[in-house]
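Budget justification, computational time. The allocation requested in the original proposal was used primarily to generate structure tokens for proteins on the priority list. As evidence of use, we reproduce two of the resulting records. The first is shown immediately below.
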Amino acid sequence: MLTESFHYRPLFGRILAAAIVVLCLVGLAGLAVAGDWANLVRTAWPLAFFGALAVALFWRPRIMIEEHGVTVVNVLRTIEVPWPAIQRIDTRFSLTLFTPGRKVPVWAAPSPGIRGAVAVERADVRNLGESAYGPGHSVRPGDSVSTPSGQVAFVLRKRWEALRDAGHLDSGAIEEGSVKVTPHWATIAALGVLFAGTVASLVV
């Protein structure tokens, strides 16, 4: 069984979110210092909305690979996937877990774009997990360990294959509701209120 957990949250995303929030705060502070209260009131809503959106999109998403399973924290929901429920791991557009009746994309681990795919070297796709390779030993650019999706997929496949080969995934049918989905209601409500306030401030 697994003894160590693996948590992944991209550093660049946190830096980007922090930069956007700081810029929004600087904008508000600048208007306050200038005494431009009319524009301060008008722009407070959109700046607050973009700051909150940046946190939701880039700061919060992450994936946690642990002994009991995989927890994926996306923008608007958290998905808890037990190991036996994982049928396939793919990296076509982003790291994605395929389970019975549901596929779980991992927002924190996107696959590379065209430029990133061109930069992939052969050394980056060697000695991956057996399940990473397709017909003719083909492999997706998103499986390269030089990419976010490939880094996480490598760890995930290694542990999933170890559990599979040890027989820990042969428990029979997956129970209904074993994949738990928890919406981020507070985030959804906050973004909804801030967006409504933004629209209202622009119309007035």
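The second record produced under the same allocation is shown here.
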Amino acid sequence: MSNEHSSTDLTVSGAGTSPATFQDPGMPPHQERMADKDPAAAKRAERQVVVLFAVSVLGTVGMLLAYFLVPSGDTVESMRTSNLLLGLGLFLSMFGIGAAAVHWAKTLMSDHEQAEARHPQKSDPETRAAALAALEAGAQDSGIGRRGLLKGAVVSAVALAPLTFAVPLVGQVGGDWDVSKFRHTLWERGRRLVRDPSGDPIRAADVTIGSAYHVIPDGLREGEHATHWIEEKAKAVVLMVRMDPRDLTEAEDRRDWSYEGIVAYSKICTHVGCPVALYERQTHHLLCPCHQSTFDMADGAKVVFGPAKRPLPQLPITVDDEGYLVAQSDFTEPIGPSYWERLK
């Protein structure tokens, strides 16, 4: 089959058929919108666009008020409320601009179909002048020049929207950048392992093979760290499991870090810091739900799958005189993901 195209017709020929010629159908007839025919409809669409831009402005203002007046605090409830208000404000700010732009384009801007023949990429001066004139005509047709309220709404929304990102970023300038805090947690010699969140101490004899415990340090909300207990908890959370000692593969210098098959490792993933708490008893694998990094609890919590590059830090444990599980020391390496001053 061969095709010959011209500006006026298309000729098609094939085996056993006679050549057929038909006219180029061109563009379909233009259908006017309500706003094109009815000035009242155009005014109504303009008001709707303004309302959407106003929603964006209110979302930006609301987000800023939430940022300054509703801090995250130290409780789960305050964090949830702060994040909800910040997220809602950010959503309204971005959604208002996007919805207004789409509605404006569909109801008020020119929707006449345009067709241009292909031409060399470099245009002559006359063509460039014509293109500039077309752009100016399009801007005039959009009504931005004669619709002052609409112009003010779009300028206000677009000007204020970046504050939803800039203010939180600027608020971090001069903040606490002491990364050495990640090198230490509340764990220390003799501090008991207690259940999270009840705070009940754990007796080694009560831990059965195959069981897993979410663990925090005893006295988390007491003493000098009481006002920042949630930050301390975020660093010190541990997952403790018990398995048959014969299944354990331990480095020579860590053979006394476990107790009769009980091992404890940081719950903070070494990839980006998500909590790893999905334990599979049969394989002794611990899975991070964020990016599927998988650690072998029976072999030093080494990485067996996923993007994490380092094993989970192990908490050395033993028992006290009453048979309760206690830490031998703090973690011997920083917990969590990498940062620029980390040596390993």
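A brief technical remark on that second record: The CA atoms of residues 196 and 336 lie 19 Å apart.
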